[in-house]
Specification:
six-stranded mixed β-sheet, 7 helices, Metallo-beta-lactamase, Chain A, four-stranded mixed β-sheet, alpha/beta, 275 residues
């Protein structure tokens, strides 16, 4: 399992810190299509062909894990725009090129499972980084991380939102303290609640209704905050104490992420003068 770290490349495609490691070599690339059914955010999500516009190709990177679910979703648009190249896995990057063309690279945030492949993909294709085409709108959605953005695409009468890790295809996203911020995340969910169109996430299956997912997640976050308040009243004193109460059933492999979120929740409650 890889621990997600702060921003790894800037929007010019330059690495700013750290080094990554490749996924296990035995894993194979999957190009996703057809009909997929799974439990998503308390609703049944059905991926029919009409949910994915004809101008979008979905490639799933071979980096499954507790933090990445089935792997990072890479989205390739038929004008040559790549959203979230994913890990620095040569087979995955070659699959993107094969499905291409690749003319420009965008990413929803700087976590390594989304951007480690940027440098190699640039070297292989000579693409530009950060050039948003006219028919895409970059939507700032901080909260999961400070630099998180979504992209709204509208073409040929179809509209979708690429949600990155702000909204996942299933489950809830970590608020990656100290970079992540609960107040900003709630505000971003309020923004996304205005988009009742399919959501194409950074991990997991396509969401049939981005707005419904955003509303569910907002309610879920508020419920978690109430649970944190209750844990504090019951005597929890440290973030670890709160995790033991509120996230008692969390997978041990991602307990560190639960603690990140708890620290962000406590910081938020402090801004409300509740601590």
């Amino acid at each position: 399992m890889r621990t997600l770290r702060p921003v790894r490349v800037n929007r010019a495609g330059r690495r700013v810190s750290g080094t990554g490691r490749r996924p296990e070599s035995g894993l194979r690339r999957q190009v996703v299509g057809g009909r997929w059914i799974s439990r998503v955010l308390g609703m049944t999500a059905r991926l029919h062909s009409e949910l994915l516009p004809g101008w979008v190709t979905w490639l799933r990177a071979p980096n499954p894990g507790p933090m990445t679910l089935d792997g990072t979703n890479t989205w390739l648009l038929d004008d040559g725009t790549v959203i979230d190249p994913g890990p620095d896995d040569l087979a995955h990057l070659e699959a993107i090129i094969e499905a291409g063309p690749v003319r420009r690279i965008l990413f929803t945030h700087g976590h390594p499972d989304h951007v480690d492949g940027v440098t190699t993909l640039l070297a292989l294709t000579g693409a530009s980084v950060g050039e948003v085409p006219d028919w895409l709108t970059e939507l700032p959605t901080p909260g999961h991380t400070t630099d998180s953005v979504c992209f709204v695409a509208e073409r040929d009468g179809q509209r979708v939102v690429f949600t990155g890790d702000t909204i996942l295809g299933r489950g809830s996203s970590v608020v990656a303290w100290p970079d992540g911020d609960v107040a900003a995340y709630l505000a971003s969910l309020d923004v996304l609640a205005g988009y009742d169109v399919p959501g194409l996430p950074g991990h997991g299956p396509v969401l049939p209704d981005c707005a419904a997912a955003a509303r569910w997640l907002r309610d879920h976050r508020l419920e978690r905050l109430d649970q944190v308040r209750a844990a504090l009243k019951q005597g929890a004193r440290t973030p670890e104490d709160v995790v033991n109460v509120v996230y008692a059933d969390v997978d041990p492999a991602i307990r560190f992420a639960a603690e990140w979120t708890v620290r962000a929740q406590l910081a938020y409650l402090e801004t409300l003068s509740e601590l």
